[in-house]
Design brief:
The structure holds two protein chains of two kinds. By secondary structure, chain A is an alpha+beta fold. Chain A folds into two domains: 110 residues, Phosphorylase Kinase, domain 1; 144 residues, Orthogonal Bundle (Transferase(Phosphotransferase), domain 1). Helix content of chain A is 45%, strand content 17%. In chain A, the strands form three sheets. A five-stranded antiparallel β-sheet of chain A has the order 1-2-3-5-4, sandwiched between helices. A three-stranded antiparallel β-sheet of chain A has the order 6-8-9. Chain A is globular, with a radius of gyration of 19 Å. Chain B is α/β, with parallel strands linked by helices. Chain B has eleven helices and twelve strands. The longest helix of chain B is centred in the C-terminal third of the chain and has 27 residues. Classes of the chains: A alpha+beta, B alpha/beta. Chains A and B meet through helix 2, helix 6 and helix 8 of A and strand 8, strand 9, helix 8 and helix 9 of B.
Chain lengths: 261, 367
C-alpha cells in the first residue's frame, strides 16, 4: 500500500465530485453536499503531520467505466498537469491554493486547505428558497455581489496573462476567503482540466465555458457576467480586443452546431 | 433546479382521452406514430411505424434522395400506422410534425404531408422540436422524473438539464455529432449501413482488443470530436493496418485491425460523453441520467453510463431502438403535451427550420 493511500485512509471524506474523490482528519467543516467537486474526484481533508496546517487531498480514484489504460494515462496527465499549472499560477501571483504533495501514479494531489465558501453558494439562485441565508453569507464575508464579480474578472485575467487556461471555469470552482480587516479574496480552484496556452481561442473558450455555467446555474445572471467581463477587460488591457472578438465567434459556434439532425 | 420543492404540474388530467399522430422525417428515418393520453393521466403507444432509407456501404444519405424516400413511403407508413392503432384520421385531436432541427429537404417533405392531412381532415397542426421529442418520449417510457439528459444521435450531442420551463444545454459538441463521427468512420472502413452504421461499429468493436491512443478532447462540459475522427482515420493508412486481417495477422503483435479501431473509437468517445454527463450531474446535483437519441441504443455506452451512475449512487434510464432511434411516436408525445397546454401551429407558421435549439422551446407542461 502506498503512502498516499495511508494518508487517505487516515483522513476524513468530504465529497465525491465527478471524477476524483477528498480526506478529513479534523472536524468536518463542510457538510458532504456542500462542496461539489465538478471534475469527479474524492476530496478529503488531511494533515501531513499532527501539528501542520490542514491540506486538501484530491484523489482521482480509478474510473471503472473507462478503459484501464485510458484511465491511467488520463489520471497521470491530469494530476501532473494540475500541479504544473498551479505552480505556474503561483509564480504569476494568481490566487490559487499552494501545492503540498503530488503522487501522479496513484492519482493523489495535496493542496493548501482554503477556508471559505464557493462563489456559487454566495450568489442568488443557488440556495433553495433560503434567500435570507444568502444575504447573511454575503454580509458575513463583507462583500457585495459586484465586488465578487470584479474579483472573478480580475483573477481570471491574471491567470490568462500567465497563459494558463482553466478549462472548467464555473462558480463552484472559485472560493471566497475572508480576510480579517480587509476585503475577502477570491481563490481559483480545481485545475484538473487546466493547461497552458497562449492562444486567443483557448482564452475565449475558457470565458465562454464560464458564461454558460453562469447562465445555467444562476438564473438572470447576464448583468453579473457583464461585470465579470468588464473587470477582465480592465486587467487584460490591449489583449482584450482580440479575445472579445473571438469570444463572439465562440458564442455563435455552439449555436450553429446544435441543430443538425 | 433539482432539489427544489416540486411544484404541481401545469398539465391537468384530461376530461377525455386525447389522440395524436406524430410525423418524423428529419434525417433518414421516416416515422409515424399514434399516442393516446387517457383521462387518468396515463399514456399508451398505439402504433409506432418506421421506414429507414438505407444507402450502400461507404455512402451517406443525401438530402435530396432522403426527401424522395420520405415522399415515396409517406402514404404507406401512415396507413400502416393508422391500421395498427386501429384509429381513423377523424379520431385524432391533432397532427404533430417535426419542425426542426434536421436536414431541410426531408423535413419539408414530411411537413408537406402533415399540412395536407391537416387540411383534408380539418385537424390542427403542432410543430415539434425534434430534441424535445426525444427527451419527452424518454421520460415517458422510463419514468425518469428529472434526469440529466444525454442526447446523442447522428446530428446532435448535448448534455441537457431541465430548469424553469426550459431544457438547458449544459454541454454539447463543438463540431460534429457523435453519431456522425461513428457513421463516417463506418464509411471509411466500409461497414454496411444496414441496419445502421452505428450498430455495425458496435458489433465490430466487440472483437477489438487493442486500445490505440486517440485524442481525448473535453473542454469543460463540451467535447470536440472531429479531431478524433481524423486521427482514427489516419490509423487506416498506418503500415500496420490490415483491412481484412487473416488469422496469421492476429498473432503478430503490432497489427491494427478495423475491430481495434472501432473498439478504440468507442472507448475514447464514450468515456468523454460519460465524463461530461458526470460533470453535469455533479454540477447540478442530480442522480438520474437519461440517454436518448440513436447512439443511445449502443449497449457499451449504456454500460459505461451505468457504471458511472452506480459509482455516484445514481441510476441510468435508457430505452431500446424503438424509442431511441428517430420515430414518429416521440413527436406525437411532445406535440400532444403542448397541444394540451393550448399550443397550436397555424398553417402559415408550419415552416421547417434546420436550426432549432433545444433551449428555444418553452416547456409549458412542466412545473
Amino acid at each position: 500500500m502506498s503512502a498516499s493511500q495511508n494518508l487517505i485512509d487516515s483522513a476524513l471524506f468530504i465529497s465525491q465530485g465527478a471524477e476524483a474523490a477528498s480526506i478529513f482528519l479534523l472536524p468536518v467543516i463542510f457538510s458532504p453536499d456542500n462542496d461539489i467537486d465538478s471534475i469527479g474526484q474524492k476530496v478529503y481533508k488531511a494533515q501531513l503531520t499532527s501539528n501542520s496546517s490542514p491540506i486538501l487531498l484530491k484523489h482521482r480514484f480509478q474510473k471503472q467505466y473507462r478503459h484501464p489504460t485510458l484511465d491511467a494515462s488520463l489520471t497521470r496527465s491530469r494530476i501532473a498537469g494540475e500541479a504544473r499549472t498551479l505552480l505556474r499560477c503561483l509564480r504569476a501571483g494568481v490566487n490559487v491554493p499552494g501545492i503540498r504533495m503530488v503522487d501522479a501514479t496513484n492519482g493523489v494531489l495535496g493542496i493548501q486547505w482554503i477556508e471559505g465558501e464557493s462563489v456559487r453558494k454566495l450568489l442568488p439562485g443557488e440556495a433553495e428558497g433560503e434567500d435570507n441565508e444568502e444575504v447573511d453569507l454575503l454580509q458575513e464575508y463583507g462583500i457585495s455581489i459586484d465586488e465578487i464579480m470584479n474579483l472573478v474578472g480580475t483573477e481570471i485575467a491574471k491567470m490568462h496573462k500567465a497563459d494558463v487556461i482553466h478549462g472548467d471555469l464555473t462558480t463552484s470552482n472559485m472560493m471566497i476567503r475572508p480576510i480579517k480587516s480587509s476585503q475577502a479574496e477570491l481563490i481559483l480552484i480545481d485545475f484538473g482540466l487546466a493547461f497552458q496556452s497562449t492562444l486567443t481561442e483557448d482564452k475565449a473558450v475558457d470565458l465562454y465555458v464560464l458564461e454558460r455555467a453562469f447562465l445555467s446555474t444562476h438564473p438572470d445572471s447576464e448583468p453579473m457576467f457583464a461585470s465579470v467581463l468588464a473587470a477582465y477587460e480592465q486587467r487584460m488591457g490591449n489583449d482584450w480586443a482580440a479575445i472579445k472578438s473571438r469570444l463572439d465567434d465562440v458564442r455563435l459556434r455552439g449555436r450553429k452546431r446544435s441543430m443538425v439532425g | 433546479m433539482p432539489g427544489k420543492l416540486r411544484k404541481s404540474s401545469p398539465l391537468k388530467n384530461s376530461d377525455r382521452p386525447y389522440l395524436a399522430l406524430g410525423l418524423e422525417g428529419s434525417a433518414n428515418k421516416l416515422g409515424a406514430g399514434i399516442i393516446k393520453h387517457a383521462g387518468d393521466g396515463s399514456s399508451s403507444v398505439l402504433s409506432n411505424v418506421r421506414h429507414t432509407y438505407i444507402t450502400p456501404p461507404g455512402e451517406g444519405f443525401q438530402p435530396k434522395d432522403t426527401a424522395t424516400h420520405h415522399r415515396e413511403w409517406a402514404m404507406k407508413v401512415i396507413e400502416d400506422c393508422l391500421d395498427q392503432a386501429d384509429v381513423s384520421m377523424h379520431d385524432l385531436d391533432c397532427i404533430c410534425f417535426t419542425k426542426g432541427p434536421g436536414m431541410g429537404a426531408p423535413l419539408q417533405s414530411v411537413a408537406l404531408v402533415a399540412r395536407t392531412l391537416s387540411l383534408l381532415f380539418d385537424k390542427p397542426l403542432v410543430g415539434v422540436n425534434h430534441c424535445v421529442g426525444h427527451i419527452e418520449m424518454g421520460r415517458e417510457i422510463t419514468g425518469a422524473q428529472n434526469p440529466v439528459v444525454l442526447y446523442v444521435s447522428g446530428g446532435n450531442t448535448q448534455v441537457i438539464a431541465y430548469s424553469r420551463q426550459c431544457y438547458r444545454i449544459f454541454g454539447e459538441t463543438l463540431d460534429i455529432a457523435v453519431g456522425n463521427c461513428l457513421d463516417r468512420f463506418a464509411r471509411v472502413i466500409g461497414l454496411p449501413n444496414d441496419p445502421s452504421p452505428g450498430y455495425n461499429i458496435e458489433q465490430e468493436a466487440k472483437k477489438g482488443k487493442r486500445l490505440l491512443p486517440l485524442p481525448y478532447a473535453t473542454k469543460g462540459m463540451d467535447i470536440s470530436l472531429s479531431g478524433i475522427l481524423s486521427c482514427v482515420e489516419a490509423y487506416t493508412y498506418d503500415k500496420a493496418f490490415r483491412p481484412n486481417p487473416i488469422l496469421a495477422d492476429l498473432e503478430v503483435e503490432n497489427v491494427i485491425t478495423p475491430a481495434d479501431l472501432c473498439f478504440s473509437l468507442q472507448e475514447t468517445v464514450f468515456a468523454m460523453l460519460v465524463e461530461i454527463t458526470e460533470r453535469a450531474m455533479a454540477h447540478i446535483g442530480s442522480k438520474e441520467v437519461l440517454i436518448v437519441g440513436g447512439v443511445g441504443c449502443n449497449e457499451r455506452l449504456q454500460e459505461m453510463m451505468d457504471v458511472m451512475a452506480q459509482e455516484r449512487g445514481g441510476q441510468v434510464f435508457a430505452t431500446d431502438e424503438r424509442f431511441c432511434i428517430d420515430n414518429g411516436i416521440m413527436i406525437a408525445q411532445a406535440g400532444l403535451l403542448s397541444y394540451r397546454m393550448g399550443f397550436r401551429t397555424p398553417l402559415v407558421k408550419t415552416t421547417c427550420t434546420q436550426r432549432f435549439r433545444t433551449d428555444q422551446v418553452h416547456i409549458a407542461w412542466r412545473a
